[in-house]
Amino acid sequence: MKKLVVAIALLIGSVTFAQDRVITFNELPKAGQQFITKYFGAKQVSLVTLDDDYLSKDYELILTNGTKIEFAGNGEWKEIDGKRNTIPTGFIPKNILSYVKKSFPNTEIVKIERARLGYNVELTNGLDLDFNSKGNFLRVDD
Predict the structure, then answer these.
(1) Cβ atoms within 10 Å, residue 131
(2) 10-residue block means of pLDDT along the chain (142 residues)?
(3) Rounded to 5 degrees, what angle do the CA atoms 107, 109, 113 make?
């Protein structure tokens, strides 16, 4: 019973003190900074926020064209959403790029998300595709 009370108190405390706060680009983990500089250009950064709930940290970055990029606490990208704009593809697994190019030659990738067991990709034609962790196509998501 004591453990349950402590767990509930910790949960309430973490929710109560969880906060999003605006930070500078230089406060983003180095891996995230390098990712942005390489694929988007650091001058395109409009806003960086840190979501710190004391159990984990997540970062969200908005570019001047509206693209939203989410990073895990270690700076590894979690999601890139071009908001209907094409996103760079240099970081996307080659199997995914090959499948999209072959199967949907007149489309571009506008969003990619690392899911628990793979990747979710959204194309300019509105299709959502699921791939496994090795980038092999699984299905069209409804």
Answers:
(1) 23
(2) 61 60 96 96 92 91 96 96 96 97 96 95 96 96 81
(3) 150
